[in-house]
Amino acid sequence: MAYFRRTGATTFDPTEHVGGAWRTDEQHVAPSLGLLAHVVETDRAARGRDDLAPTRLSYDIWGPYPLLTLDARVRVLRPGRTVELVEAELLCDGRCVITLRAWLTRTSDTAALAGGAPGPLAEPGATPPWDPATVWPGGFIESIEVRRSLVEPGRATVWARTDHGLVEGEDVGALARAAGLLDAANGMSVRAHPREVAFPNVDLTAHLHRAPGSGWLGLDTTVTFGPTGAGLTRSTLHDEQGSIGALAQSLVVRPA
């Protein structure tokens, strides 16, 4: 009941729960995004510290990749006492498939200054259950629980969670678990059925104003298709206590 099994210091084998949605013989990108966040948070050999918290996760997706072993590499691009820029990448079959650049900052008590966050979503229990397998195939889609309130095609509020571990036998933080669900934003509020229109995302960037809690991830999502083959998915991110940040995904839109 995990998405990956560690096979070495930097290598991970995908399980059947990583099967893709566009093609089931490829890996769904969502668990890989969580895996990269996990290695950034835990790779002491590369970073040598754990006193900074990620506030931006910016992923570039280099293309589809098969259900083969992933090799994760981490390096610090910009060290600092209070701010650090870290780059991590996943390789599959000798090819880079995802790059993450993460800004991490020192935490401090700014509770007296906090404000300006969007209002909360209707709680998960007040949002109707929805089966994403009615739209998408694949092991990852089968592994998540979704609740959705659809306003119109391309506009919805969604709650998602999974009881699958990210890496078998490892303690994984709430941020990495949430990061492993972020890519669901583009697939849970579709403007058009994927059998009719393809709209894969080539990137995903999440900005966080506080760390997520465990459990449900909320996505208040709008999907836009432009007139020349580009698209954009935008989401306000929530946990059960309220807003935690925002994400954006660039889409390539074309007839399927």
Secondary structure layout plus pairing:
Layout: E1 2-6, E2 11-14, H1 29-42, H2 44-47, E3 52-61, E4 70-78, E5 83-92, E6 95-106, E7 129-130, H3 139-143, E8 144-152, E9 155-162, E10 165-167, H4 174-179, H5 185-188, E11 197-198, E12 203-208, E13 217-225, E14 230-239, E15 242-252, E16 254-255
Parallel strand pairs: 1-10
Antiparallel strand pairs: 1-2, 2-4, 3-6, 3-12, 4-5, 5-6, 7-8, 8-9, 9-13, 11-16, 12-15, 13-14, 14-15
Domain Acyl-CoA thioesterase-like N-terminal HotDog: 21-104
Pfam families: 4HBT_3, 4HBT_3C
Protein name: Thioesterase family protein
Provide a compact summary of the structure.
By secondary structure, this protein is mainly β. It is built from five helices and 16 strands.
Structural write-up:
With 256 residues, this protein is mostly beta strands. 13% of the residues lie in helices and 44% in strands. The chain has one domain: Beta Barrel (Porin). The strands form 2 sheets. A 14-stranded mixed sheet has the order 7-8-9-13-14-15-12-3-6-5-4-2-1-10. Strands 11-16 form a two-stranded antiparallel ribbon. The longest helix has 14 residues. It is globular, with a radius of gyration of 17 Å. It starts with a strand and ends with a strand. This is Thioesterase family protein. It holds the Pfam family 4HBT_3. InterPro entries: ACOT8-like_C, Acyl-CoA_hotdog, HotDog_dom_sf, TesB_ACOT8-like_N.
Q: Which spans have pLDDT < 50 for at least 5 consecutive residues?
A: none
Shape: globular
Tell me the Rg in angstroms: 17 Å
Strand content: 35-45%
Spatial arrangement of strands, main beta sheet: 7-8-9-13-14-15-12-3-6-5-4-2-1-10
What's the number of structural domains?
Answer: 1
Order of helices and strands: EEHHEEEEEHEEEHHEEEEEE
CATH architecture: Beta Barrel
